[in-house]
């Protein structure tokens, strides 16, 4: 596998947050000042590969960072964007949540022109999605890792023991 830009940035980038599962860093090619990337430390290409417990954690971190951006940079909004697959514009094959600081009239566009969809197509799509999403809810749980305690052999220091025994023998 070739080097992943986000994996490298997770190690050497301008980090603003890090814990055992997640790292957030300033985007080196920002859309706006304060553009932050939140990504798992473990390499996953798209959201569907990320375990549920980790996805939840990533979104919690993204939420807190978005709040921090509001408070620190005094912006008027944030865009929270996931480019999920190459057709969506994903350029780096590593799952990431982009948080882009926004201000009024900042010049960044983010509009999708609506398309015309027939009522029949909308109904068919609704039914298909309802059928395939009816079992959502059985989320992956984080596996709890057992804490292992190293057992050490209880070895007495014989020189210490001999000294103490000699001292006890001297007591009348």
What order do the helices and strands come in, and which of them pair?
Blueprint: H1 5-12, E1 15-18, E2 22-26, E3 36-40, H2 52-73, E4 77-81, E5 97-102, H3 119-133, H4 158-170
Antiparallel strand pairs: 1-2, 2-3, 3-5, 4-5
Descriptive account of the structure:
This protein has 172 residues and is α+β, with helices and mostly antiparallel strands. The chain is built from four helices and five strands. A hairpin with a 3-residue loop joins β1 (15-18) and β2 (22-26).
Q: Round the mean pLDDT to the nearest integer and report it.
A: 85
Strand order of the largest sheet: 1-2-3-5-4
Helix and strand content put the structural class at alpha+beta
- Low-confidence runs of at least 5 consecutive residues: none
Major β-sheet profile: 5 strands, antiparallel
Give the ordered list of helices and strands: HEEEHEEHH
Distance between the first and last residues' Cα? 77 Å
Kindly provide the radius of gyration, computed on alpha-carbon positions and rounded to a whole number of angstroms: 27 Å
Number of strands: 5
Number of helical segments?
4
Roughly what percent helix? 25-40%
Work out the oligomeric state of the chains in this entry: single chain
Shape: elongated
Task: Give a brief rundown of this model.
The chain is an alpha+beta fold and 172 residues long. The chain has four helices and five strands.
Q: What characteristics describe this protein?
A:
five-stranded antiparallel β-sheet; alpha+beta; 172 residues; 4 helices
């Amino acid at each position: 596998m070739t080097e992943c830009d986000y994996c490298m940035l997770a190690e050497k980038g301008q980090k603003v947050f890090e814990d055992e599962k997640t790292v957030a860093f300033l985007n080196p090619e920002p859309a706006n000042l304060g553009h932050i990337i939140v990504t798992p430390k473990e390499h996953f290409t798209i959201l569907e590969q990320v375990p549920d417990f980790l996805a939840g954690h990533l979104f919690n971190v993204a939420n807190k960072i978005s709040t921090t951006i509001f408070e620190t940079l005094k912006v008027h909004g944030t865009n929270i964007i996931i480019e999920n697959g190459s057709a969506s514009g994903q350029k780096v094959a590593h799952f990431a949540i982009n948080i882009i600081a926004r201000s009024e009239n900042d010049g960044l566009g983010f509009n999708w022109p609506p398309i015309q969809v027939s009522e029949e197509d909308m109904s068919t799509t609704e039914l298909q999605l309802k059928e395939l999403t009816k079992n959502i809810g059985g989320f992956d749980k984080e596996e709890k890792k057992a804490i292992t305690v190293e057992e050490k052999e209880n070895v007495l220091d014989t020189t210490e023991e001999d000294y103490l025994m000699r001292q006890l023998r001297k007591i009348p």
